[in-house]
Amino acid sequence: MVVKKLILFIAILFNSSIHSQTLLETVNLPSGTYWNSSYGMVYNNSKFWISSSSSSTGSGIFYAVDSIGGLVDTVNIVETGEIRSRKFALVEISPIQYNPSNGELKLLNSCSIEIQIESSNLEKTHQYMQRYYSPTHENLLKTVFINYGDLENDIVFSQKDPEGYLFIVYDGFYNEIQPLVDMKESKGFDVTVTQTSEIPGGSSVANIESYIADAYTNWPIPPAFILLVGDTGEVPTKTSGLQGGVSCSDLYYVTINPEDYLPDIYIGRFPASSPSQVTSMVDKTVYYEEGDFASDEWIKKGAFIASSDHSQLAEETHNYVIDTFLTPNEYLCDKIYEASGGSTSDITNSLNEGRSLCVYSGHGYSGGWACVPYDQDDVNGLTNTDMYPFVCSHACSTSPFNSDECYGETWVRAENKGGIAFWGASASTLWDEDDILERGMFQAWWQEGLTTIGGMTDMALYRVYENYSGGGYSQYYFEGYNVLGDPSIILVGSAGGGSNTAPDDPEAPVGPEDGETWIEYIFTTTTTDPDNDDVYYMWNWGNEISDWLGPYDSEEIVEIPHMWTVAGEFEIKVKAKDEEGLESSWSDITTITIVAIPLIEIGEITGGFGVGAVIKNIGAVEAENVEWTIQLKGLVIIGREKTGTFDKIMPGFGPTATTGFILGFGPVQITVSADEAEKTVDALLIGPFVLNVEE
Known about the structure:
The protein is an alpha+beta fold. Helix content is 20%, strand content 35%. It contains twelve helices and 38 strands. Strand 25 (535-540) and strand 26 form a beta hairpin.
């Protein structure tokens, strides 16, 4: 069993660990199987296994092994790469070690890991973060990186800066794409339209890759989104040098770092082979994003189609996403399952009534879905005008878009019908990976604020990557799954509908200008969300940054307390985000000057011959004339109360106040006070001795 996390990094050291030991049969492991192999006794549940090494066994020696019997390090850097010019490491922690000779497990309870950054340039790192900042990518990075914020919180990002959008358009489709270009500009994108004839050296795959890399590296505003406008005869796609079985992929247009296969830009394609097909896709997309629907009854409805194969895993996956993400958000979902008699007509009737989601999992081919049959003729026979679903096809080879019109292309080309976008594979797919992919996409959408098609589908692929430590079919899936449609579309049904606007910049924090250490002060702010969404606030107090706090109503005046423990001048600012994760810029700055004061704390109270109590100064300056009192309540004959004064207590020091001789019998309550601090304990008094002191 392993735990995998992406960490912004360069190097990692495993310092120390704490293990506990138990027997295999006492551990509540998931349902699995056991068998003898060359590696010893093996436990396996298809997700992980525990075994011994065939080359080294013995009592008291514990092992965790990989699938070929090799020893697994407790902490291991599996892979490194870059996402949007931020370097990371995929760190794998193996918390279980197994001794097959006696069936004992060694379980990792806790560990200390040291991350070393070698040959780093923090100034350049900050420059890259600022240059390649994109709100839609930032939401993904927050989800992917476990230590997001360690560096980012030192940087002022601006939500109001435009995101770059690059259209690469076949010359013959230039006029037809303009309505969509105009819409993107009206939504605040910095749009560049490049015709294929303008690509230096011609519109080959290599030349387009170079052109995009130059735009990303050198343009004032690097693209966050790319839309290829044209089928592969007009705008080519990569068809060679791919994982075995993948027929075509647009992935490598947006993997700027040549050493990995992870996208740095969201990409989609309008696979049009004629001007009329471009017009059809543009009209549907503009209509969808404008959100001026005759009726909204279709928006919170979905159609889920499932194969009965593989122990009905597709049904299990669909039921999970429906129950976990959609039903709680007031969606009504049709379950058109093969095992329950779901039919072609059921799909048609559902979609013609209007559904914003159409999700299939099962067997497929280039012309359609096989388990509950639905082919290209069925798509072209739909009458779902103005009610276009996002179509997710978790099936083999439903989107080999380098061939004659494939199934995915039919869905997006269909005029006034079909889908708004199609996400499917140009290769055969696998049951477990598709299960992870589907769950990951809905989690990204509803729990992680990734509401664009590009964001949620990329995050789903990262779930596969994390699950298999970047191995297995990770690269195959990144290559094989492609978006046919506009990757910047925000799905209807998301909070805020088909479009959303970030909250206004919050007002500068209002609060005192001066203060003292160890005292809480209240600061207020407010903001307006144009969509009247609930808002969350993140506060930068000058010495630390808060988590997101909320939700609060739009325009609500928010009061937040904060305490400083060190003296200095601190700049306070606050930013807001809405329910979808869109963020404002930081507010204007408010400054507070904090002066140090002593702070007295009662430390350990001890017994023995009398009572002793540590009077500690945890403040930042020396405390003078600290008066203290020790009182005993109970059957106390001598020494019921003792007082005294410490002339000075330096910061961090704690002298001990003592009662001296006391006399009494039975239970007593001891209260120690000094300055404004007080602490009470119980004890047993036997003659002059104080025993069993307990808080």
